[in-house]
């Protein structure tokens, strides 16, 4: 199993424009999870955790 914990794009509450672009987008997440037989995700406030199984 492979674990990924990353910030989800657009969930950060800040006025700093440099920080607003951080995080994984839905398109990035789709690319990351493609090809894995089982994908389980959980939102942990701003971060998102994904468990990927071959």
Description:
The protein has helices spanning 17-20, 26-33; strands spanning 2-7, 38-43, 47-53. It has 54 residues and is α+β, with helices and mostly antiparallel strands. A hairpin with a 3-residue loop joins β2 and β3 (47-53). A 3-stranded antiparallel β-sheet has the order 1-3-2, with no helix packed on it. The termini are close together. The relative contact order is 0.36. 22% of the residues lie in helices and 35% in strands. The mean pLDDT is 90. The protein is elongated and about 40 Å long.
Mean pLDDT: 90
Q: C-alpha Rg, in Å? A: 12 Å
Amount of beta strand: 35-45%
Looking across the biggest beta sheet, what order are the strands in?
1-3-2
Uncertain runs with pLDDT below 50, 5 residues or more? none
Oligomer: single chain
How are the SSEs ordered, and which strands pair?
Layout: E1 2-7, H1 17-20, H2 26-33, E2 38-43, E3 47-53
Antiparallel strand pairs: 1-3, 2-3
How do you describe this structure in short?
By secondary structure, the protein is α+β, with helices and mostly antiparallel strands.
Looking at this protein, list some descriptive labels.
54 residues; alpha+beta; 3-stranded antiparallel sheet; 2 helices; 22% helix
